[in-house]
Each structure stands twice: as structure tokens, then as C-alpha cells.
Amino acid sequence: IVKVVPDQVTLIIQVEQSGTDAKDVQKSTDRIIADVLKYLRKSDIDERDVRTQHIRLNKNYDYQTKTYSYVANQSLVVLIRDLSEYPSLMNDLLDTGINRIDGITFDSSRRETLENEARVKAMKDAKDKAMLYASTLGQKIGKAIHISEFQAMPSPGPMYRSAMVMEDAPSGPTMSPGEMEIRVKINVNFELL
Hints:
By secondary structure, this protein is an alpha+beta fold. The chain is built from three helices and eight strands. A hairpin with a 4-residue loop joins strand 3 and strand 4 (about 65-80). The radius of gyration is 24 Å and the shape is elongated.
């Protein structure tokens, strides 16, 4: 395990519109997404840091009124490489018309380096444990004959509770990235001598 304070955040934002005309609902959603993309470009968010996650148009039937309605939604995944930009970006994104924030995930721009550091620590730990076990049996360890790494699942980030803007919203920070753990799990088989 290597601990680090995150320095970037990934947002999953969504626009969802509903109505009785499929084309109007989709056009409305497309218009808002175009505004969001324009805002992100203006805010110097690199195009490679923005990607569409999904686009959906669903037809719903109300059995009581015997009418159809449509719901269109589109979500974007946005990487913010500077955490200090998060508060202003969030407020401005809400102003563009997004009405759902499906989550945020904190990360480190140094993840690869930190994972390698954790790998070195894991290998040393594996060797130390193997030496302890072997010495208990009156043996020694030889060379490693098999090494495998377990794939880590990303740790969940905090969820932004509401996409509604309130006039008396708090003026201070509304999120705290804390400290994250980079974990690497390995399995090493050593020869016993």
C-alpha cells in the first residue's frame, strides 16, 4: 500500500430531459451537451479528458393516461487535472444545464509511479514472509519460480448528493479528497532449499 493525496478528479455528469416528443427531447439534450462541451473547451479542459459515456432515448408508456413520453439522457466523463478548479467548474457546469452528477472519483497523476513503488514494497514483503516461513521449517528460500499480480478494483469516490443549485449554498469547500491508497497484491512462489 502506498498512500497519496489525490491531485485530480473524474466527474460523471449527465443531462436528462423528458417530454412527449422524441425529437424535441433529444434536441434539447443535444443542445445542453453542446453548451457543456463549449464551456469545457473554454475552460481549457483538454478534449482527450472529455468522453461520452452513453447516449440514450427511452420511450415510456403511462398505463393510466394511455400516453407515451420520452426520456433522453447523455452522460460525459470529465477528467479535471487540477483539483483547485473543481468548485468553480462544478458551479459553472450546473449553470450549463446538467441535471445529474453520477459520481466523482479521485486519483493521482502519479498513479503508475506509485503502483510501481507499491509493487516493490509488495515484493519485499513477499520475500520477508517467505523467509520467515522457510526459517520456521529450518529451510531457506531460493529463486522465485512464479510471480503473479492480482488486478485491483478501483476504490469508490464520494458521491455528489444533488445537482440542484441552492441560493444559500455553503461558501466553503463542499468536498474533501482526503488520502487515497494505491494497493498492489502479488503472489510469489519461491523454491525451498
